[in-house]
Specification:
By secondary structure, this protein is α/β, with parallel strands linked by helices. The protein has one domain. The protein has 13 helices and nine strands. Helix 1 crosses helix 5, helix 3 crosses helix 5 and helix 4 crosses helix 5. The chain starts with 15 loop residues before the first helix and ends in an 8-residue tail after the last helix. The relative contact order is 0.15.
Length: about 325
C-alpha cells in the first residue's frame, strides 16, 4: 500500500501507520503553535506539568533514564532518584518548548539570557580556517546555542536523522533551517556534505553520545563498554578541524543558558590504520562527554538504550524518533 508523501490512503483503505504519522505531525505542529503564542514565562511554566505527565505515562522511559542516571551517579537511590528522573523529564519538556519558540525570538531575546564559557575555542578554530566540529551530548538546550552561533554570522551545519513519516522530517528540517542552520540528513551523502562545510569554515554540530547507526568504535563510557559514533574523530583526522566537546546547560534564569566549550580533543594520526586512530580519539571524546554530562546529569536527555546491557538495545536504532523518547 503506497500513499506517497502525505497523500491520504484511498477511501476504502485503512492505513494505521499513515494515521499515526498524521497525528504525530499534528501534535508537534500544535505544540509549536501553542509554545510560540504564549509569553515566555507562561511557556516555561508548561515544562513541569508536561514533564510530570510524560514521566507518569512512560514507565519504560522512566526505567531507562534511571539506568543512565545511576551510571552517572551510582549513589542515586530512593527519593533522590525519583526527583532526578522527574527533573530529567522536565528538562526534556523545556528543550522542546524552547525549540518550538526559537525561530520566532529576536536576536536580543536569544542573546540576553545566554552566557558562554570557552567560546574563544570556536573563534580560534575558525581563525585557522578549517572549520570547527562541535561534539555535543543530548544535554540541555543545544538548539538555543546553535541559534546563538548562527546569529553571530557563523555558518553552522547540523547532521539530523531521517524520520518517518517524511513529512515530519521535512517539518523538523524547516524548523532548524529557520534557526539559521544548514541541515544535512544522516546517510551516505552526509560525509561529503560535512567535509565541504568544514572546508568552507563552517561550524559543524554533531550529537556524539549515541551511536544511531550502530557501527561506531567501541569505547568505555561511564564505566561500561558500548559504541559511540566515530564521525567527529574521522572528520577531525581527515580535515584537521578541531573537535570541541561542548555542553549547553539550562540555568535558573528565564530562558537562561550556559554554553560551555572544552579545549580541543587531540586528533592527530598515530596508528597505521585510520580506524585505530578513530577509536583512540573517540575514546578521548567519550571521556570529555562524561565531564560535560556529570555537570548536570538531570539535563541529559538520554531516554533510549545506549549500552548493550540495556533492555531493547539491539533494536533501538530502528525504533527511535527525532531525539525524543519517541520523536
Amino acid at each position: 500500500m503506497s500513499n506517497g508523501r502525505g497523500r491520504p490512503p484511498a477511501f476504502d483503505e485503512f492505513d494505521p501507520k499513515w494515521i499515526s504519522g498524521q497525528l504525530t505531525i499534528g501534535g508537534y505542529k500544535m505544540g509549536a503553535f501553542a509554545a510560540r503564542m504564549l509569553p515566555g514565562i507562561m511557556a516555561a511554566g508548561l515544562a513541569t506539568p508536561i514533564g510530570a505527565t510524560a514521566n507518569f505515562s512512560n514507565p519504560e522511559r522512566r526505567a531507562m533514564i534511571e539506568r543512565h542516571l545511576r551510571r552517572v551517579d551510582p549513589t542515586l537511590r530512593g527519593g533522590r532518584m525519583r526527583r532526578a528522573v522527574q527533573e530529567a523529564f522536565d528538562s526534556y519538556a523545556r528543550y522542546w518548548i524552547e525549540s518550538f519558540r526559537l525561530p520566532y525570538l529576536s536576536k536580543r531575546a536569544v542573546s540576553a539570557p545566554f552566557v558562554e564559557d570557552g567560546y574563544r575555542h570556536i573563534l580560534d578554530a575558525l581563525d585557522v580556517g578549517s572549520g570547527a566540529i562541535i561534539a555535543l551530548p543530548h544535554l540541555g538546550g543545544w538548539e538555543w546555542a546553535g541559534r546563538w552561533i548562527a546569529d553571530r554570522g557563523h555558518p553552522i551545519t547540523v547532521i539530523v536523522e531521517r524520520l518517518d513519516p517524511p513529512e515530519l522530517f521535512d517539518w523538523f528540517v524547516d524548523l532548524r533551517s529557520k534557526l539559521g542552520m544548514t541541515v544535512v540528513p544522516l546517510g551516505p551523502e552526509a560525509g561529503t556534505a560535512v567535509v565541504k562545510a568544514l572546508k568552507a569554515n563552517h561550524v559543524v554540530c554533531l550529537l556524539s553520545d549515541r551511536d544511531i547507526q550502530g557501527n561506531g568504535p567501541e569505547v568505555e563510557f561511564f564505566g561500561e563498554r558500548t559504541t559511540l559514533p566515530g564521525g567527529a574523530a574521522t572528520l577531525a583526522l581527515r580535515t584537521g578541524a578541531p573537535i570541541l566537546p561542548t555542553g549547553v546547560y539550562f540555568t535558573n534564569r528565564l530562558d537562561g543558558h550556559l554554553g560551555y566549550v572544552r579545549p580541543p580533543v587531540p586528533a592527530v594520526r598515530e596508528a597505521k590504520r585510520l580506524r585505530d586512530d578513530v577509536q583512540r580519539v573517540t575514546q578521548h571524546l567519550a571521556t570529555e562527554l562524561e565531564v560535560l554530562i556529570r555537570r548536570a546529569p538531570t539535563q541529559w536527555h538520554m531516554f533510549q538504550p545506549n549500552w548493550p546491557s540495556d533492555p531493547g538495545y539491539p533494536q533501538f536504532s530502528s525504533t527511535r524518533g527525532p531525539d525524543l523518547p519517541k520523536t
